[in-house]
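Entry 14. Ran structure prediction on the chain below.
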Amino acid sequence: MIEIYVSTDVETDGPIPGPYSLLSFASAAYRANKMLVSTFTANLETLPGAVSHPQTMEWWRERPDAGPRQGRILSRRKWR
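Output, structure tokens:
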């Protein structure tokens, strides 16, 4: 059996779900020899009525190329 390892990262606009939104998530699957098998990414819509945490948004402003943009589905890539 081939072992596959999956690493997943999420980006949010606040510290907890509900009042704040999950903005994006991405996963990468690797074999034990570190060969990339596949990736998946999705940017998501914000939750209705959710707000952005001021400290989290300051972090994003300081790093404009670091991650997702809020407000709509921007892209979705399926496992290749």
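The chain has a mean pLDDT of 82. Will compare against last week's run tomorrow.
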